[in-house]
Amino acid sequence: MNYLELVRLALPEIILTVSALAVLAIGLVNNRVPGFCSGLAAAGLLFAAAAVLQLPPQAVLSQGMLVVSPLNSLFQIVCLALAFFTVIVARPERLANSGEYLALVLLATVGLLLLIGSEELLMIFIGLELTGLSLYVLTAFDRTNQQSAEAGLKYFLFGSVASAFTLFGISLLYGLTKTTTLSAIGPQLAGHPLPPLLLVGIIMTLFGFAFKVAAAPFHLWAPDTYQGAPVSAAAFIASGSKVASFVVLAKILRTALHEVPGSAAWHALAGGWSPVLAALAALSIIVGNFTALAQRNVRRLLAYSAVAHAGYTLLGLIAHSTEGFSATLFYTTIYGLTLVGAFGVVAFVRRENGGDDLADFAGLSQRSPLLAGCMAIFILSLAGLPPLAGFFGKFYLFSAAFRAAPDQGLLWLVALALFGSLISLYYYLIILKAIFLDDSNTSGFAFRPDFLQRITLTVFAGAVLFLGVAPEALVNRILACLV
What we know:
Distance between the termini: 30 Å
Low-confidence stretches: none
Strand content: under 5%
Number of helices: 20
Shape: globular
Radius of gyration: 21 Å
Strand order of the largest sheet: 1-2
């Protein structure tokens, strides 16, 4: 192995690891400089992004342990951007031991980069565990909040079981194919009938990733985690972790398991991963949307809506086409940008009013027009209304699923997704009603975001609007990477 080549290709991960250790050391020596720790963490993320841009277009190290490609680099940049915004959101939260908190955010980001940059099942599992362990601690980090400790425990327990399922599924795939490299698994499965043990391995692996993307019925951790965790940690879990998980899941299905998709068509059901994902998608859409109707806490409402959005995103994978995979990656990207921006507004409201229920958002348009306007863009995009990015994301997903089978075998799933989107309009409009129509019990909005926070929120809202007006800017880039 050429270690200089390894250092060159793994430079983004090395920069983040060194930054995490530096932030941790400074936070331990002097905990009175949280602003300096935040600046150092943000600088580490920016230098890591610059290192990603300097990587070669194509490179493979140690049989897929580390792979550099335009697709991997693109989504590594997306995850770094989401982590950067998480650091900004964490600044006004004033958590104790902020150096440790920011170091965990950086280490979780290292895990995301390894997830996206690897095409080898064992390295993917290591990336999953590095990210998961960091996020478990981040969730339970607020020791003054009992909900945070409870959410962290639930997240850890569910995550441990999901990791066991994933590892056992990977072991079965390895036992049947004698390899853990994604590009080598596909040829081993070509031309052979689907053995029952392989189907068990696929199902267990998919169940592990269903936990990561909060698909029903593996979503039970999400509401408590989104509500109990510090807002910045919840934003990172809902955005960065989900983006990386969908990218990895898409690569596994497209590269390793492309020979055994089966069929989810209502009249031509066949064994494989497609019917498993179709069942997860349908259940997620139903459970997520109907449960969100009863929520009065905004973070809990966003958690259940995230379950429904996981169901929508799976439609592109079920389509099993280049257009379907690109639609999934496009939608998970814009969803991550939208949700992290929404959590940014929630963080500001929570700090001012001490809560994040619907009543705490009453009169936000009078107290802070900027926050109200940004939140309106994020919520309407989640609802899928034009001309915002969420509308075109759903359009691409539903179109890919509709065209997947010439005989319209997936029409039942598309119709269910359209019905779920219609239901979601109600609970999204409830949030906007509180912001723009309800009267506030407070006379003013004392807390005002600083310049960096205002700029960041505006940039995310502008990105959601831009990708709605010109979605081909990102769609074509993803398609070019997949071809």
